[in-house]
Prior knowledge:
Helix content: 55-70%
CATH class: Mainly Alpha
Number of helices: 9
Radius of gyration: 17 Å
Membrane topology: Multi-pass membrane protein
Protein name: Rhomboid family intramembrane serine protease
Order of helices and strands: HHEHHHHEHEEHH
Mean pLDDT: 89
Keywords: Hydrolase, Membrane, Protease, Transmembrane, Transmembrane helix
Strand content: under 5%
Strand order of the largest sheet: 1-2
GO molecular function: peptidase activity
Shape: globular
CATH superfamily: Rhomboid-like
Number of strands: 4
Amino acid sequence: MRQKPEAMCTTVLIIANAAVFFIMLLIGDPEDTYFMMNHGAMYEPAIVEGQEYYRIFTSMFLHFGITHLLNNMVMLGALGWNLELETGKVKFLIIYFGSGITGNLLSLFINMSTGENVVSAGASGAVFGLMGALFYVVIANRGRIGRLSGRGMIFMILLSLYFGLTSSEVNNEAHIGGLICGFILAAVLYRRKRTV
């Protein structure tokens, strides 16, 4: 009997993000900026002056409230499932974490150049990376994989960027950095499956 393909890494990432959120909920208030800053969120002075570079990574698992978590996890589930089955686990993880870290670094660089000290957190930089990578994969497969089409991906990207750019308290730099990085990493790592 043939087994259905599984996106194990996507599932583990969703469980990890949810677990971190509920642990944070038990010990404090994830919607409180100071609480999040004290528990690993992105904060430029802490990273640059305090040399707390781990925040570039830990902030990817922190979310400002249940709505923030759910929005990111729904997108992670939908995008991650499709991408992981196409790229395999290792390449998927490289794209996910590479995009998330790159998005956070771009956000950090822009905050430093503008002199803004912003507390930010969330998996959205990495999730946008999956979106960018999946867009490349669709292009590489002549505009379609499964139910996903090139036009559908363009619409999703534009809509996601529009909502980010027209909303307050959204780290658009991390989104854009993640999106571009995901596309580039997929272009480097992904090879189209040959059909027999």
